[in-house]
Amino acid sequence: MPPSNRSEVNRSEELACLKQQIADIDKRFAARYAVGPAPKQQNARWFIEQWSAGEVVRNEFGEHFQTERLFPAHKRHGCADIGGLAELPKDLLDAAGGGEIPPVPCERWAFLDTETTGLIGGSGTYAFLIGVGRIAREGFRVRQFFVREYIEEGSVLDALVDHLREFEVLITYNGKSYDQPLLEKRYRLAHREPPFARLAHFDLLPSARRLWKLRLQDCRLTQLERRLLGLHREGDLPGELIPYVYFEYLHSQEAQRLVPLFHHNAMDILTLACLTAIVPAAFRSPDREGLAHAGVRRAEDLAGIARWLLSVGRRTEALELFRCALSAGLPDAIVFRTLWDVARLEKKLGRANAAVSALTEIASCRNEYRSRALEELAKHYERQEKNYSLALEFTSRALACGSSTALLRRKTRLEKKNG
């Protein structure tokens, strides 16, 4: 078979596989949301109202579909207490946000997530579904703005401007890199002013990575939801299928396919809110007792917070937390990097003996920091102890790990001094 024919066959097989996945999801949600067939005489344009409890909203830019969902306060989202969100302190985001987030009541926080026609974010990428969550006394509310046809984008953008006037803080997950720039581009293409300039923007992703990447590696929202909240979604729509489902809807106007999409967006926003209750708390009191109170007890997570403290210049606190992480038992992949951080901090704080102890431990076995530790030990014994014989021994051992011009020069100099 010619290569061109083979590629066509492969594309056909992939398309068939995607259609089958969507069909399986449709079956799961049809039983839950079925309300009977739509009248045949009804215009397909309004067919989405048969599948979602919402309304058509009109403004000066046209109309769009809008829906709102309440997650009651007495319910749980995995292990998270939805009702507890209303008790979050107004200065919760201060430390993790680098002091850029003003202390405002949590009811003034807007949790935003978009579903788009692609991941590139170019001028041809639309945000066809925009969800905004808010904390309320009765629970957690998610309002969703849906573009049924491309012509309705202007109406959705206008409605979003009106809705965001109620908030002072915007919270997203990777929103500074994706959601906000994409929406700003859509506003500019529509010759409108984006509504984000007056909102303090807290992107949860960087803080989540600092806290959990050493342990989880994958810090996607759905992964954190599964690993930390203990929630396993049933019948969820995979993110890579979302643009395809929307394009299918534009072609067929079969709104049944959109039900999992609305659910996926609402779940992402609720998960974002629940993680916001967890992550910033770890940065407010980054000591062993405060972190334990915030639920952070794993050694890798302690090391993650310690690295953040180091990055913002809080050396003494970082050193204490690094040592706590080491005593809690770090995996081999992290322990030597942590020992290296401890050695550097002890040296900067003028505690030479403690630095030598950490460096000696690193140099005792094969690891990626061994050569650097041996070189640091050679420097210490040459400059501080004036023990040229021992300095020469560490230099030779470092050269055995890998040669460099600096090490060769050091060896030559120490051989002369030692002689």
For the largest sheet, list the strands in their spatial order: 1-2-7-6-5-8-9
Could you name the ranges where pLDDT drops below 50 across 5 or more consecutive residues?
32-46
Helix-and-strand structural type: alpha+beta
Average pLDDT works out at: 87
Strands, total number: 9
Report, as a whole number of angstroms, the end-to-end distance: 76 Å
Question: What would a concise description of this structure say?
Answer:
The protein contains 16 helices and 9 strands. It has 419 residues and is an alpha+beta fold.
Overall description:
The protein is an alpha+beta fold and about 425 residues long. The protein is about 50% helix and about 15% strand. It has 16 helices and nine strands. The protein has helices spanning about 5-35, 155-165, 180-190, 205-215, 220-230, 240-250, 260-275, 280-285, 290-295, 300-310, 315-330, 330-350, 350-365, 370-385, 390-400, 405-419; strands at about 55-60, 60-70, 75, 80, 110-115, 125-135, 140-145, 170, 200-205. The strands form two sheets. Strands 1-2-7-6-5-8-9 form a seven-stranded mixed sheet, sandwiched between helices. A hairpin with a 2-residue loop joins β6 (about 125-135) and β7 (about 140-145). The longest helix has about 30 residues, at about 5-35. The chain is elongated and about 90 Å long. The model is unreliable at about 30-45 (pLDDT under 50).
